[in-house]
Amino acid sequence: MRAIWKGAIAFGLVNVPVKVYSATEDHDISLHQVHNADGGRIRYQRRCEVCSQVIDYSDIEKAFEEDGRTVVLSKEELKAIPAENSHEIEVVQFVPSEQLEPMMFEKSYYLEPDSKSPKAYVLLRRALEDTDRVAIVQFALREKTRLGALRIKDDVLVLQSLLWPDEVREANFPSLEADVRISAQERDMSAALVESMAADFDPASFTDDYQVQLRQLIEAKLEQGESLDTEETFGVEAGEGSKGEVIDLMEALKRSLDRKRGSGSAAGSAGDEAGGDSGGAAGEGEEETKPARKRSASAPAKSAAAKSADKPPAGKTSSSKSAGDKAGAAKSSEAKGAASKSAGSRSAAAKSTAAKPAAKSAAGKATGTRARKPA
After folding, report:
1. Among 37, 153, 162, 249, who pairs with 104 as Cys (CB 3.0-4.6 Å)?
2. pTM of the predicted structure, to 2 decimals
3. Which residues contact 281 (CB under 8 A, 6 or more apart)?
């Protein structure tokens, strides 16, 4: 890295000489403009409106125009501004980091010790660590007085330039003043979606897809020339993407949750749809605000013993029927109590090896019910 500026941090009467390096860089692929007819490079020229001559950069000055009057400022006059000649990063306050508005952050710079002994540099760093605060500083860089925040990153002092308050626009949107009602179901569903996507931030796990695909396009064009087929290169039609506004918010939330929680196999999902009759009864007792839970394909139903324990008394015909239809009590080794069930019990109970003949007879009279094979 090459230092872009040299100066010193004024920490009270303590002077900390430093070199300033840009901490960030642009990774975008550089493209230039050409004439589409012949591929000729497009160049920009600094041409004077008065004499029509192309002007060299060394002969260009800066000017300010107001109310029809123009003031030309020479390079020497601009350099005469006191703040421009200052190479001091003055610490003016120490504040809690949570008081800094992230929107005000502009650009980051690394500060390297610029003296034979880095003791003053380490002292300032330790002071920030011990007090758990951020130093607010003022400095001049590239013809502008700037506000900045001095913090620590990996034992290195980092200077982050801040925007001035009048450089941050106010958000004034009349549409947000409308009375919008959010139901408890929508809030619960959105909170569940947030939880399903919760993770620790790892910037290395993200990729600039546009730059990757731009490189892919460049390499394909170099190989194929004008016969390039973008649909074949990317596997999708150009410009393809999601469009339209989401109208049914609850449906969108449910589908989003299903997508995040649908890590199971496609067979498991198909099994849930096929078993909608048996699963619907269980879902009716739950609150609507709770998101639907997908059942695992490896455990579509309770064990036989658990089902038997959950059975109601034989006298409660309708409840017994619902439980028998939903859980498939035919698989239970204790299916003897099925004799007291109504004709709505599944014929599968008749196939139980532990059932009495009376149970077989009662189950055999049932019509319209589906038979399930024992496990």
Report:
1. 162
2. 0.60
3. 322, 325, 326
